[in-house]
Amino acid sequence: MKDIELKMVSALMKNSRRSDRELARALDISQPRASRIIKKLEKAGIVREYTMIPDFAKLGYEIMGITSLNVTEKSGARFEEMRDATVKAEKNNPHAGLMIVNGAGSKKNRVFIDFYQNYSAYTKVMTNVKQFPFTDIDSLDTVMVDLKEKENYRIISMSAIADHLLSMIKRKNEVQA
């Protein structure tokens, strides 16, 4: 990616509510160029959505769970069947899932991050996960974060990643100089 594109991503991560004109001014480029860069980033799938990050504790979530598990597919299970079952399960038992991804390490191959109103809500989701069709769960571990803990350093923020992108540009330009 070009430096200006990374700068635009960084600016959007810090505040996606800014107008193209405001972004252009902040990046010292023209408004039409800012608009073209944004459209290019959207088309390339680099900017997937515009959203905000709430204070989850103030919304009633007491716990954030970071769960890692080892899932083995039962013989004969097909990806399409598993995906359809996942969509159906989430529709029947909605939960506040931030991320559900494949992973590797610590003898685990799946990771998900969810928000829970309380421990009871967490146990309900874990019960559903363990009963999921087409899979066997060999092991499951969860790190729970108390969202009401006043000494948490940073719960969820895009600003640190945005600042890191800018530091990468700076380091690259220093090496080239």
Features:
177 residues; alpha+beta; Arc Repressor Mutant, subunit A; Alpha-Beta Plaits; 2 domains; 4-stranded antiparallel β-sheet; 6 helices; 4 strands; 24% strand; elongated
Describe the structure.
The protein has 177 residues and is α+β, with helices and mostly antiparallel strands. The chain folds into two domains: 3-52, Winged helix-like DNA-binding domain superfamily/Winged helix DNA-binding domain (Arc Repressor Mutant, subunit A, Orthogonal Bundle), CATH 1.10.10.10; 56-146, Lrp/AsnC effector binding domain/regulation of amino acid metabolism (RAM) domain (Alpha-Beta Plaits, 2-Layer Sandwich). Helices cover 44% and strands 24% of the residues. It contains six helices and four strands; from the N terminus they run αααβαββαβα. Strands 2-3-1-4 form a four-stranded antiparallel sheet. β2 and β3 (108-116) form a beta hairpin. The protein is elongated and about 55 Å long. The model has no long low-confidence stretch (mean pLDDT 90).
Strand segment count: 4
- Spatially, the strands of the biggest sheet line up as 2-3-1-4
Percent strand: 15-25%
Cα(first) to Cα(last) distance is 19 Å
CATH class of the largest domain: Alpha Beta
Radius of gyration: 20 Å
CATH domain fold name of the largest domain: Alpha-Beta Plaits
CATH architecture classification name of the largest domain: 2-Layer Sandwich
CATH H-level name of the largest domain... which superfamily? Lrp/AsnC effector binding domain/regulation of amino acid metabolism (RAM) domain
Q: Would you tell me the structural class of the helices and strands?
A: alpha+beta
Helix amount:
40-55%
H-E string: HHHEHEEHEH
The low-confidence parts are none
Overall mean pLDDT stands at 90
Our count of domains comes out at: 2
Q: Count the DSSP helices.
A: 6
The geometry reads as elongated
